[in-house]
Amino acid sequence: MADTPEHPYIELEGSVTAPILMFDEAPLYGIMGAVGRITLSAVLQDEDGQGGVKQRRKVVVHLRGNGAAFHSLREAINGMEMLATPTQGGEKPN
User: Which of 8, 11, 27, 69 has the fewest CB atoms below 10 angstroms from its CB?
Assistant: First the structure.
């Protein structure tokens, strides 16, 4: 996030020691009460015991949050997608 009037610098505790979460898909989502829920999963590969490979899906995290939390997550994803989109001049994104 750039240090601009729209996105001022904020100090975040624990950024060095926080876990890194990797996922491949978000297969389940919903709302219960005022809490949004998203389940994230990863695709894992294992040997099938016959010389081949089988895939399985494993849940890696259950995201839970209120409307403000998911609004913030949506803004972060939209910003990330904007950074990954080439400009009109064909230049590569940042």
Answer: 11
